[in-house]
């Protein structure tokens, strides 16, 4: 429990001194005043985590003080001190927003128990707020790493899709980051304050899938000893992710279609119709359009899910993002594993670029995580990657300063690499320095890489 600042309000000096002494013995920071108006004045000058106030006081009683505090200082907790037998005052105080109350006469330990509860609740609220902020930051679009043309196109699509409540179908190979994109859509959607609930359609048989999606009543089947909420209920006012929706059986496809059309369902064994406004985001690593032609997936369900289609490119189609992704994961895992690693060596980076990555971004992440573990310090080399399938591949190197460029092509190449060096390989800043577009810079670098490999 973190310590906090406390204000004690009581017109009886002996009671004020008694409370302050009890709190100071617990090494808490305490101040005291004799009435409500003075307390409100103190609150304008200093932030307090907790106010302990008597109910019966001249000038302004404790209940009026409580209302003023809750109106102007919502994060400040209030503990009320009530006289013996005046339970109605305690009930009124709790109804008006007091955190707790204590009846006179009370022992110091009894008061401290309530103070500790107030601070624990404060810490829990702060922790929850911090977690929401971290989640929000984790799944903003800028944390989906990549600056290739295909990724820029993806960002533009996500920006348009996220602002709506329409169903989304995300297609892409395994490891391309479909769930990350789904979470980013949720965190930037009108439903961002609601829950993000997911279910793996490939992991459950029909009997369990129906119960998981729609819930069941007590006694609906053997072992149903209590009523259970389904994922659609849990995702109310939020987002429901149907992971690998292509693996859903024809029977479950029909039931899912009905929910998407009618926005309602019934629990297994129940008769009550339940409304849902959960936004549905589905993912698959298969070509659903081909599955529709092969009559393996319902055409009507496909069009219900595919209102906003998103196709994630495999990593082999955006290799210019590999250095950026590799350094992104390097920063994450050096911090997580507390390793003194500065960078990735050129020959290792060349191997990463040369490899085709059948496991996509997930495979690259695991490779960097393993390299961080296996590299004692300094720079990650080729031997730390454990990639037997590839050999060291040339990467773009800066021209030697000892060689004077003689052709226009060499002068241009030298200028670009010098600018890259000055900007720590930041392509956006380099393009701005050179007065060219990021696309032009990218094309030039691709041209130089091809020339380097050819040589």
What does the model show?
This protein is of the alpha/beta class and 455 residues long. Helix content is 47%, strand content 15%. It has four domains: 5-132, Rossmann fold (3-Layer(aba) Sandwich), CATH 3.40.50; 141-313, Rossmann fold, CATH 3.40.50; 316-384, Orthogonal Bundle (Helicase, Ruva Protein, domain 3), CATH 1.10.8.60; 408-454, Homeodomain-like (Arc Repressor Mutant, subunit A). Strand 3 (50-54), helix 3 and strand 4 form a beta-alpha-beta unit.
Based on helices, strands and strand pairing, what is the structural class? Answer: alpha/beta
The number of helical segments is 18
Mean pLDDT: 85
Percent helix: 40-55%
The description of the largest β-sheet is: 5 strands, parallel
Strand content: 5-15%
User: How far apart are the first and last residues' alpha carbons, in Å?
Assistant: 65 Å
Principal-axis shape: extended
Say which CATH homologous superfamily of the largest domain is assigned: P-loop containing nucleotide triphosphate hydrolases
């Amino acid at each position: 429990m973190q310590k906090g600042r406390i204000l004690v309000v009581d017109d009886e000096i002996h009671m004020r001194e008694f409370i302050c002494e009890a709190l100071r013995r617990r090494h808490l920071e305490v101040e005291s005043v004799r009435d409500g108006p003075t307390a409100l004045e103190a609150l304008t000058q200093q932030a307090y985590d907790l106010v302990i106030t008597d109910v019966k006081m001249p000038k302004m009683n404790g209940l009026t003080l409580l209302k003023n505090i809750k109106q102007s200082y919502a994060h400040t907790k209030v503990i009320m001190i009530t006289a013996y037998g005046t339970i109605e005052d305690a009930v009124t105080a709790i109804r008006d927003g007091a955190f707790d109350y204590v009846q006179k006469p009370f022992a110091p330990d009894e008061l401290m128990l309530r103070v500790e509860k107030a601070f624990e609740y404060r810490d829990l609220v702060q922790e929850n707020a911090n977690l929401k902020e971290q989640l929000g930051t984790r799944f903003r679009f800028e944390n989906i790493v990549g600056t290739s043309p295909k990724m820029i196109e993806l960002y533009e699509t996500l920006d348009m899709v996220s602002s709506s409540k329409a169903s989304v179908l995300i297609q892409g190979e395994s490891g391309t980051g479909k769930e990350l994109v789904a979470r980013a859509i949720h965190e930037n959607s009108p439903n961002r304050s609601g829950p993000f609930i997911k279910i793996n359609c490939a992991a459950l048989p029909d009997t369990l899938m129906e119960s998981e999606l729609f819930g069941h009543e007590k006694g609906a089947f053997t072992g149903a000893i209590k009523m259970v909420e389904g994922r659609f209920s849990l995702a109310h006012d939020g987002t429901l992710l149907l992971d690998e929706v292509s693996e859903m059986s024809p029977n479950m496809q029909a039931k899912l279609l009905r929910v998407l059309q009618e926005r309602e369902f019934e629990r297994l064994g129940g008769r009550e119709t339940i409304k849902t406004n959960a936004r549905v985001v589905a993912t698959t690593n298969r070509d659903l359009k081909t599955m529709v032609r092969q009559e393996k997936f319902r055409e009507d369900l496909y069009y219900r899910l595919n209102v906003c289609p998103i196709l994630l490119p495999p990593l082999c189609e955006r290799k210019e993002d590999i250095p950026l992704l590799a350094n992104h994961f390097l920063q994450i895992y050096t911090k997580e594993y507390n390793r003194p690693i500065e960078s990735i060596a050129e020959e290792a980076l060349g191997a990463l670029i040369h490899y085709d990555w059948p496991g996509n971004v997930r495979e690259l992440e695991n490779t960097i995580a393993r390299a961080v573990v296996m590299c004692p310090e300094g720079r990650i080399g080729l031997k730390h990657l454990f990639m037997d399938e590839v050999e060291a591949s040339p990467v773009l190197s800066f021209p030697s300063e000892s060689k004077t460029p003689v052709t226009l092509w060499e002068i241009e190449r030298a200028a670009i690499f010098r600018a890259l060096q000055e900007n720590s390989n930041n392509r956006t800043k380099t393009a701005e320095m050179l007065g060219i577009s990021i696309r032009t810079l990218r094309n030039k670098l691709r041209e130089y890489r091809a020339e380097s490999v050819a040589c």
